[in-house]
Amino acid sequence: MAIKPCKECGNQVSDKALACPSCGAKQPKKTSIVTWFVLGLICFTVLIGALGALMGGGETQEVEVKAEPKEENKAGMLLFMAQQQIKASAKDPSSVVFQGEQLHQKTKYGAVACGEVNGKNSFGGYTGMRGFVVTEKDGEILLEGSQNNKKFIKIWNEICTK
Prior knowledge:
The protein is 32% helix and 22% strand. It has helices at residues 33-56, 74-89, 149-160; strands at 3-5, 12-14, 97-107, 110-118, 130-135, 141-143. The chain has a 4-stranded antiparallel β-sheet, with helices on both faces. A two-stranded antiparallel ribbon has the order 1-2. It contains 3 helices and 6 strands; from the N terminus they run ββααββββα. It is an alpha+beta fold. Strand 1 (3-5) and strand 2 form a beta hairpin.
């Protein structure tokens, strides 16, 4: 226990006392080590941030993104878009499974993506694998056994079975 002078009247006060016994003035509390540590950590973080901004000049770089895919990526983009549309139109999108995907870049239909898809029906059972084809020329997704089955079979046999 240490005795120190009161900040208001100057009389002797214990460091454990909450207020001066002579004048009743509240005594300042000690700042804990944890408080000093947190304060130091905040100051250090601000200092590092300021130095980083000075060193880097605070400039950001702009990156130009082209909307048109490169020639070698067209079939991959077709496949991705077809898979997203097939999932979106499925009864249970989380059950949709793809296999045997193929990418063909330069055909008479432009870029072509094909493969097989399976998903659950309204009763919760899988329907079985069905082929799908999408071409750059018309962008239409052709499914095996659908209304455009003749067109599907033609493109499937020409490109996807090789």
